[in-house]
Amino acid sequence: MTILVTGGAGFIGSNFVLDWLAQSQESVVNVDKLTYAGNLANLASLQGNPGHIFVQGDIGDRALIEKLLKQHQVRAVVNFAAESHVDRSIHGPGEFIQTNIVGTFGLLEAVRAHVNGLSDTDKAAFRFLHVSTDEVYGSLSPDAAAFTEQHRYEPNSPYSASKAASDHLVRAYHHTYGLPVLTTNCSNNYGPYHFPEKLIPLMIVNALAGKPLPVYGDGMQIRDWLYVKDHCSAIRRVLEAGRLGETYNVGGWNEKPNIEIVRTIASLLDGLRPRADGKSYAEQISYVTDRLGHDRRYAIDARKIERELGWKPAETFESGIRKTVQWYLDNQEWVAQVQSGSYRDWIAQQYQG
Ligand code: NAD
Ligand code: DAU
Q1: Share of the chain above pLDDT 70, in %
Q2: Is residue 173 in some structural domain?
C-alpha cells in the first residue's frame, strides 16, 4: 500500500516525507505543483529511492489525483498543499482562494470518487488527513485560554479565511458523504527547510547576511512554536489512530513574543558564528511597519491529542531553535539556492523603505 502526500516539496511536507520514509516501508506518492515554495532540493536525499514517487501536479486536478489514487492503490491522503504565507495573502489573495479552497475542493472530489469505488474493507481503512492551522481560530486576548477544538472559527487574514473554508469543506464531506476525514490544526512550525520568508528563517538568513532584522509593529505579537518534526509525528499518530471526523489541535506549549524569538536567534548566532566586529546580531533589529490586521496572539491547547492519542512534543523550544540555527549554518548552499529571483522580488516589495 501507499500514501499520497500533497505539497510534499514544501517546508512541512518535505520534513514529513523524509521522516515517513525513514520510519516506514510504505511508499509515498508526492504531488506538488512546485510553486515558489516547493523545492525538490529538500528531497535530494531521496534520489534513487523507489519508495518516493514525485509527480508535479495541482491538487485541483481531479483526473490526475484520481488516476494516481487508483494506480498506486493509495490507502491514505495527507493534504499539506496550500499557499501558506500570511503576508503574501494580504498582497494577493487570489492564489490562496484558488489553491486552498478551490484546490481542496477538487482534491476532495477526486478522493470521494475513488473511495466510492473501493471494497467495503478498503473503504473502512481509507483516510484523508487535512493539515490545517491554528490561525482559523483568530486572535486571542492576553489572558484568554488557549484554543481548544471547540473554539469558534474567526479567521482574520485572507490566508486563514481560505484555510478555514477548506476545513469546512473537509468537515462537510465527512458529514454529507461519509468521507473518512481527519483534520489537524497546528501552531507555528520551525526547523529545517523552512522557506526564508517566514520569521525564524528570515531572521537567521538576514543576520548572517548583515541585513536588518525586520520586526513588525512592537514585536509583542505572540505565537506558539512547534519543532517541525514534532508536527510530523503528530500527523503520523492522528493518521494511525485518530477518530474519523474529529479535529486535533497540535501545539508545542511554547508561547513567545516575536521580539524574544529574534533576540534568542541573535544570541545563539553570537555564540555559534560571532560577528566580525564583535557586536551582537541584536544590533541589526529594526522595527518596521506592522502587518495589516496582524493577529496579536495564538496559543494551542493540545490536551486532546495527548489524552486520546498519547502524543506530546519531543523537542523543547530551546533544543529545537538551537538545532534550527545550526541547520541553517550548515546548509548555506540550500539557502543560496532558494534565494532565487522571485524570492528577491518578494523581499524588495515587502520591506521597501
Ligand atoms: P509551504 O508554503 O512551505 O509549502 C506548500 C507546498 O504546497 C509547496 O511545496 C507548494 O509547491 C505546494 N503547493 C502549493 N499550491 C499547490 C497546488 N495547487 N497543488 C499542489 N501543490 C501545491 O507550506 P508549509 O509551511 O509547509 O505548510 C504546509 C501546510 O501546513 C499548509 O497547509 C499550511 O496551511 C499548514 N500549516 C503550516 C504551519 C506553519 O507554521 N508553516 C502551521 C500550521 C499549519
Ligand atoms: O500559526 C500557524 C501559521 O504560522 C501557519 O498557518 C502559516 O502557514 C505560517 O506561515 C505561520 O504564520 P505566521 O504569520 O504566524 O508566521 P510568520 O513567520 O509569517 O510570522 C510570525 C510572526 O512574526 C508574526 O507575528 C509576524 C511576525 N513577523 C514576520 C515576518 C516575516 C515579523 O515581525 N517580521 C517578519 O519579517
Answers
A1: 100
A2: yes
- Ligand 1 centroid to 320 CA: how many Å? 21
Per-residue cell: 44? 535530494
Cell of 123: 473503504
Does the pLDDT value for residue 343 go beyond 80? no
Per-residue pLDDT tens over the stretch 175-185? 999 999 999 99
Query: Closest Cα to residue 175, out of 112, 238, 126?
Result: 112
Choice from 34, 35, 130 to test ligand 1 binding pocket (greatest atom count within 8 A of CB): 35
Domain encompassing residue 305: 2-190+228-252+297-314+341-351
Write the CB contacts of 277 (distance below 8 Å, at least 6 apart in sequence): none
Mutate to test the pocket of ligand 1, among 4, 6, 11, 30 (most ligand atoms within 8 A of CB): 11
Is 134 annotated in the active site? yes
Residue 348: pLDDT above 90? Answer: no
Rounded to a whole number, what is the largest CA-CA distance in the chain?
A: 68
Question: Would you state the cell numbers that stand for residue 324, as one nine-digit string?
Answer: 534550527
Q: State how far the Cα of 285 lies from the Cα of 272, in Å rounded to an integer.
A: 18
CATH (domain of 83): 3.40.50.720
* Within-domain flag for 38: yes
Q: Is residue 206 part of a domain?
A: no
Q: Is 334 in the pocket of ligand 1 (CB under 6 A)?
A: no
How far is C-alpha 281 from the geometric centre of its chain's CA atoms?
27
Q: What is the pLDDT of residues 45-88, one digit of tens each?
A: 999 999 999 999 999 999 999 999 999 999 999 999 999 999 99
* Active-site option among 32, 58, 83, 135: 135
For residue 206, give the C-alpha cell. 538576514
Residue 353: per-residue pLDDT: 61
Residue 341 clears pLDDT 80, i.e. is over it: no
